[in-house]
Every structure is written in structure tokens, then in C-alpha cells.
Amino acid sequence: MPPAETSRVAADPRAHEVVIYALGLIDTGYRFGGKNPEAGLDCSGMVSHVFEQAAGLRLQGSAADIAARGRSIDPASLRPGDLVFFNTRNRSRSHVGIYIGDGRFVHAPNTNGKVRTEKLTQGWFATRFEEARTYFD
């Protein structure tokens, strides 16, 4: 699943803002159920916070809830600002991150972790990737 970033039309300007805002959260502490940077963030809380602050879009609920409302896209056409979903607990769509380009995504990984970037095509998350979705046209 090598991201191409070339198969879809130019990104919505809000997508760029989502990426910039998400990168600003690097090293923010993790907290299960966390929905703001001051208290800590979990994966869906981070995505909800970023999309509301940077794009004015309200995405609420779990990673699976967020996925259910997004539009499915071919992983080969991922663009920065799209969402990537993983099966990390033997449950479909149990983890979500924000694609930032160059085969990387930002996410809030787990307890005792911090918001960070990972590669989609290497390591633990590569084998657990499920789908890509977008909220942008």
C-alpha cells in the first residue's frame, strides 16, 4: 500500500491546516478518553480536537464512529489530512491517525506514550492498516 498522493485533485485548504495543527501536538501526552492537549489525548480525541480546531469540522466518538462517517478512499490516493484506520485490538477501526504525507501519519499511540509520527509501510502499524477515509472533497 504505497501512498501515491497523486490520484486525487488538489487538497481542500483545511486539510493543510489539519496537518499543521496535528504536527503541533507532537509529544502531547496520551490519556485514554482524552479530548484536549492539556489533559492528554487518545487517538480519536486527537483527531476530533484537530479537525474541530483546524478545519471547523466536528468528528466525535470512537475511531470506528469517525470512520463510519468519512468517505472511503483508495489508500494509494492518500493525501495529507486524510485519516488512516487500523485494527490494533482485534477490532476493526480500533485506532485512527492523520496522514501527513510521505507515507507518514500522526497519532496518539497508547498509555504512557505521546503523540508522534509513524510510517504506514513499516513496523507494527503497517501490518494492522485497514483503510483510508476522508472528510474533504
Supply database-style keywords.
about 140 residues, alpha+beta, endopeptidase fold (from Nostoc punctiforme), two-stranded antiparallel ribbon, 8 strands, about 25% strand, globular
Describe this structure in words.
By secondary structure, this protein is α+β, with helices and mostly antiparallel strands. The chain has a single domain (13-134), classed as endopeptidase fold (from Nostoc punctiforme) (Alpha-Beta Complex). The protein contains 3 helices and 8 strands; from the N terminus they run αββααββββββ. It has helices at 13-23, 43-55, 63-69; strands at residues 35-36, 40-41, 71-73, 83-86, 95-101, 104-107, 116-119, 129-134. The strands form 2 sheets. Strands 3-8-4-5-6-7 form a 6-stranded antiparallel sheet, covered by helices on one side. Strand 1 (35-36) and strand 2 form a beta hairpin. Helix 1 packs across helix 2.
